[in-house]
Structure formats: C-alpha cells, structure tokens
Specification:
By secondary structure, this protein is an alpha+beta fold. It folds into five domains: 114 residues, Uridine Diphospho-n-acetylenolpyruvylglucosamine Reductase, domain 2; 118 residues, Uridine Diphospho-n-acetylenolpyruvylglucosamine Reductase, domain 3 (2-Layer Sandwich), CATH 3.30.465.10; 97 residues, Alpha-Beta Plaits, CATH 3.30.70; 103 residues, GMP Synthetase, Chain A, domain 3 (2-Layer Sandwich); 38 residues, Vanillyl-alcohol Oxidase, Chain A, domain 4 (Orthogonal Bundle), CATH 1.10.45. It has a seven-stranded antiparallel β-sheet with strand order 15-12-14-13-17-18-16, with helices on both faces.
Length: 486
C-alpha cells in the first residue's frame, strides 16, 4: 500500500467536478452533500485501523484520500448514485461511522468515492408483538439502543464501538456485542435487510423467523464489508430491557481453569450475557490493589441480566461451577471499572502514549483453545520478546469462544514499529490457522486480513467468494481490494 505525505496531498488536490458523473450526483443528493475539501477527505481517508491511526500520528496516510465523499439522504438517492457509479465504472467505498479496525474503509487508490450513509438514520418501525425493530442502516448504534431503551427494549448488541458505529456496520462486519452470551452475534439478531446492489437495484430480503427456500441470500451480505452492495435497512430482533442486571468478579488460579468454568457454564444451559476471562498479563493491572485476587490471579467478569429469579439462580449455579474449577468470588471493583469504560477505545489512548497497540480476535473450539492460545502468544513473542502480549476471552458459546489478543510494541520509530506489527500479525495468524482456529470472530477482514482469506476458506472456497463478487459486481466497483477480493 502506497503511503503519501499529508502535505503532498494538500498540495495536489483532486478535482471531482471534472468527472462525467459529478453533475448527475449533485442533482441527486445536492451539492451541499458532496464533500471535497481537504479536511473532509482527510476524515474519510481512514477508519480505526491501528496502523492507520499510527501513520496519521507521524503525518502520513494509511493509503489514499478519497476524491470525494457523497452523503445520500434516502434509499432512492443511494440507488441513483450507484446507478451513475456503475455506468461510469467509478469505484466506491460504503462508509458507516469508520469504526472498523482493519482498514476496510481506507481508499486503496486516489480515484475513489466514499458513500457516507449516516444521513439514513431513522428507526422506521417497532413490531412489539413479534419483537422486531426496523431501522435505516446509517443509524448510530448508541442512538438506536437509547431509542429502544426508552421503550424498555434492547437490541442486545452492545459492541465496544457502540457510540461510534452504525447498525449496518454491525452487519457488514459481522460484529459481536459484549452481551453475545445471551443474545448472540449480529447474524443471530438480524432477520431481514434491504441492500442497494452495485447497479442501483434494490434487493429486499423480507424478514422471516426462519426459512427453507434454498441458500440464505442474507448470508452474502452479513460480513460482506461493502464488497457486494450497500446495506440501507435492517430488521432486527429486540428483547425486553432486563429487569435486573448485575456484574460480578471471580478469580482463577490460571486461565485453563477459567476456560473450563466458562465452558461448563455455557454447556449447562445458562446464558449469562457477559463472560470475560483474562490471562495473567492482562489481569495484573486490573486486579492490582485487590488482595483477594493474589491466590487467584486470572480475573473473570460475569454479567447476569433478566428476571430477578433467573439472575439469582444463574449466580448460584455459576458460583458452584467456579468453585468446582478451583476459582472463587473476589472483589467486584475491577468489574465496575470495566463497566464504566466498556464503550471507550483503549488502543487509541495507548498509541498516544508512545506505543503501537493492536488487537486480534479469533475463534476456536474449547478442545483446542489452550493450544491455540499458547501458540499465538509464543508466535507474537518470537517477533519481539519485549512486546506486551496479553489475552482475554470475551465471547463464549457451548462449543467454543473468542480469544482476543492485545499486543503492543515501542512506537517511537514509525517504520520499525510497523515492521514489527506486520510480522506479529503474520506470525499470530499463521499460528491460529496451524492450530485449528478461525482468524476472525467479529472484527471482520477489511484490508489487513485479505491476504489470508484463501488459507481460511481454502482455495475452492475463496474461488467461490470471488465468483460471487464477479456475479454481483462484474465491474468491481464495490470497495475493491478488501477481503482479498477484486
């Protein structure tokens, strides 16, 4: 990926008004909704990709700036813009709120247009009988959840990026919220959607509780990250806002006993919304000053929610399982600290203090999880023995869990830090695949993981994905170069 100085870009602006589609787009969305100033383009030239934010810190770009950002205000305007883009073979990048962490919204060439969806930001309908909400794709996640809360409902999808992500972005990146233990990932919550295809056609996947009418079309767009189309509307399951919510702290002598407890909890039929287990390096700063964790140095946070009687029963059964696995109840204060800051980004803060911090989340079955963890941690430290490498398990299921690795290197030298970061990504991903894990649980693929898609799916599977892309987007105008696809 070519890196250019910000000053160079400011001195050599792109003039989108020379493009043959410009006047037509202006007629559709209004020229006031076409942003071509340097500051505007700078805002759309990155997402929350740690490498991109790190580049900005040194006055560089992670890729290119878009020549223009277009902000349609209706589904019909999105369709009209895409018809013009398709006719003129103009590459576009769908953009929600830019919360992705893998470069999925970064332009890979200077001749690209960003389609910003945030003006499509309304809740369209609430079906209180079927417990469904229909919402436009550009709706901010925090505002959507607040609207539901005012009606005493919840979407059940509470990612760390809640206040800086959109509902369509959740689906486009196949995300997971912090309460996934109870409500599932986003693919378990969305039951219908509308998608504007590359040629401007509107695909309406009507909501249904279940279907047996051939392969699921919605699966093509869940996790597609804008390479197949633009998600403009979604219908999601919603739930009653929990009558009682409680977050408790537990400690374990080691991470293996903690994993055993979480597995037993999920396989017992309980569904606590939040289960978070930290290894010793990640636990240490969180439990410092709380002596009851001295003999149980691996912190585990479990959140319970729902009917008070159910909460009481789940707490009772959980403690029995925890104690059977060698753990015990400890101070809740570290848990309260996490709850207070659960929607804040920690990576940006650490990068500002002289580190290059990054995260990488994978999925693996319980039977191989310790081997996957040990191999990935060893792989990271083989690149830089002085690096910070820690982990936690933040989403658990009956058959496995999400392992979330945090790693950081000295960020005082831009190129040296980026070289180490890239080498760590390669080593950790290789260790994940070699030991039977899946390389992404909820962050998606973006640009960063595209090179390993054939390893993840096999050559035959990857060829199918590219074939689908060729069929839906034969002119390859939708976010080209992302997910390893043309």
């Amino acid at each position: 990926m070519k890196i250019q100085s910000m000053r160079d870009w400011q001195q050599h602006p792109v003039n989108p008004e020379e493009k043959p589609w410009f006047a037509g787009v202006a007629d559709i969305v209004g020229k006031e909704n076409m942003l071509a100033g340097f500051a505007d383009r700078l805002a759309y030239g990155r997402d929350r990709w740690p490498q991109g934010m790190f580049r900005y810190k040194f006055g560089h770009l992670p890729g290119y700036l878009p020549m223009l950002a277009v902000q349609p205000g209706t589904v019909e305007e999105v369709q009209g813009v895409m018809r013009l883009m398709h006719a003129h073979r103009q590459a576009v990048i769908p953009f929600g709120a830019g919360s992705g962490v893998l470069g999925g919204a970064v332009p890979l060439s200077p001749d690209m247009v960003t389609i910003d969806m945030k003006r499509l930001n309304k809740v369209l309908a609430i079906d209180e009988v079927s417990r469904l909400a229909t919402v436009q794709g550009g709706m901010n996640g925090e505002r959507f959840e607040a609207h539901l809360n005012s009606l005493r409902y919840t979407a059940g999808h509470l990612p760390q990026s809640l206040n800086m992500s959109t509902v369509a972005g959740w689906a486009a990146c196949r995300g997971a919220g912090q309460a996934s233990g109870r409500y599932g990932k986003i693919e378990d919550i969305v039951v219908g959607m509308k998608v504007v295809l590359p040629d401007g056609e509107l695909l309406d996947i009507r909501p249904a509780p279940r279907r047996a009418v051939g392969p699921g079309l919605m699966e093509l767009f869940m996790g597609s990250e804008g390479v197949f189309g633009i998600i403009v509307e979604l219908t999601l399951r919603i739930w009653e806002y929990p009558e009682k919510e409680e977050f408790l702290g537990y400690g374990f002598p080691d991470y293996v006993s903690g994993l055993d407890a979480l597995r037993r909890i999920m396989q017992s039929g309980m569904r606590p919304p939040v289960t978070r287990l930290y290894d010793a390096p990640e636990s240490a700063p969180r439990i410092a000053g709380y002596p009851d964790y001295n003999a149980l140095p691996c912190l585990c946070m479990i959140g319970f929610a729902g009917d008070p009687d159910f909460v009481a029963l789940e707490k009772q059964k959980t403690l029995r399982i925890v104690e059977a696995c060698g753990g015990g109840r400890c101070s809740d204060e570290p848990v309260h600290v996490w709850v207070k800051g659960r929607f804040f980004s920690l990576t940006a803060e650490k990068n500002a203090r002289g580190w290059l911090m990054d995260t990488l989340e994978i999925a693996a079955h319980w039977s191989i999880m310790p081997e996957v963890y040990e191999a990935m941690r060893a792989a990271a430290l083989s690149v830089d023995p002085e690096a910070h490498v820690g982990a936690h398990w933040s989403h658990t299921y009956t058959d496995g869990a999400c392992l979330y690795i945090t790693f950081g290197v000295d960020g005082t030298d831009e190129e040296a830090a980026l070289a180490k970061q890239g080498a760590m990504w390669s080593a950790i991903t290789r260790a994940c695949h070699e030991n039977g894990g899946s390389m992404s649980h909820h962050h998606g693929v973006g640009y960063m993981r595209g090179r390993w898609m054939a390893e993840e799916w096999g050559q035959a599977g990857f060829a199918i994905l590219q074939g689908v892309k060729n069929a839906i987007d034969p002119r390859h105008i939708m976010n080209p170069g992302k997910m390893g696809l043309k």
